[in-house]
Amino acid sequence: SATWLEDISSLNISNVEMEAATLLTITNVYGLRGGVVCAVYANRVTDEFGEEGEKDAINVGNEAIKILTERDLKGAKT
Q1: I need a surface site. Which of 36, 62, 63, 77 has the fewest CB within 10 A?
Q2: How far apart are CA 78 and CA 73, in angstroms?
Q3: Which residues contact 45 (CB under 8 A, 6 or more apart)?
Q4: Dist. CA 71–CA 11, nearest whole Å
Q5: Which GO terms fall under biological process for this protein (predicted)?
Q6: For residue 43, what are the β-bridge partners?
């Protein structure tokens, strides 16, 4: 709704998603590492949709896994 959008905009919130909090909570509960990369699919202010960030998000996620794997193999946990 317009009120919801105005409320989050007034708080300078620029990312709205639903799954990350659950994923990060579950990984924390089980003592695992977790991370989230968000791609922009919708501009709720202008009501525009796209998929421009998908490939970049995949590349960032893949690079993060590579870095963490290299650190784990060296014995430096983060």
Answers
A1: 77
A2: 12
A3: 5, 9
A4: 37
A5: nucleoside metabolic process
A6: 48
